[in-house]
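User: Show me a protein chain along with its predicted structure.
Assistant: Here is one chain, sequence first, then structure tokens.
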Amino acid sequence: MTPSSPSSSTVTPSTDPHLQSRRRRISDSIHPPHSIEELLLEAQHRWLRPTEICEILRNYRSFHIAPEPANRPPSGSLFLFDRKVLRYFRKDGHNWRKKRDGKTVKEAHERLKAESVDVLHCYYAHGEDNENFQRRTYWMLEESFMHIVLVHYLEVKGSKGSSSHSRDDNEMAHTQMDSPVCSSSFSSQNQLPSQATDAGSFNSAYKAEYEDADSVYLKRDPIQQIVVKQDPDTALSLGYSMKMEP
């Protein structure tokens, strides 16, 4: 006797309207104690908390999202891009730790919580040459914002590779690990990655997700700048698109 196929009306966690509504209410209630300017400056030295990341992602329209890729961005750099516009975003010139095939970047994944509800995807990559240098990629589970991605680069002093996290990670709850997002998930600019999940432990395994891709270089806005990192040859910034009063 063959099992019957699942009903097309089955509601998954990612599409549950009640869960989506709760995520929206939680996101709407998020008011970090710092201004966004302060958050961006603090991001030079520490990882942002889930509530702070959500605040930036929800206000993405206030920022300039440039189509230019970054090349080897330094510690403290922040990037925003629209996955509907840019097909790839991970090819940044850095040498990240690889899987056994020597080609695919090894990334750990977890879902971050706010008020006991999953609100963010987070993907971790660690430097091959410098294990203290890490890249974290975030996007919201809320459907209306899941196309906007925040990428953060940071060198964590005293880190011992993938087993260590900063003190700010105490607010990041470990949950299920998603199956890796295949390159075919991005075959269309308007196509969003699969939300299928597999049970697993963050500490026991890595899930690979690598795309032969370009990151977005957030150029300086002539109206206002929030400088995130200043190097002799590079200035990474997030600028408000709203004109400020004199």
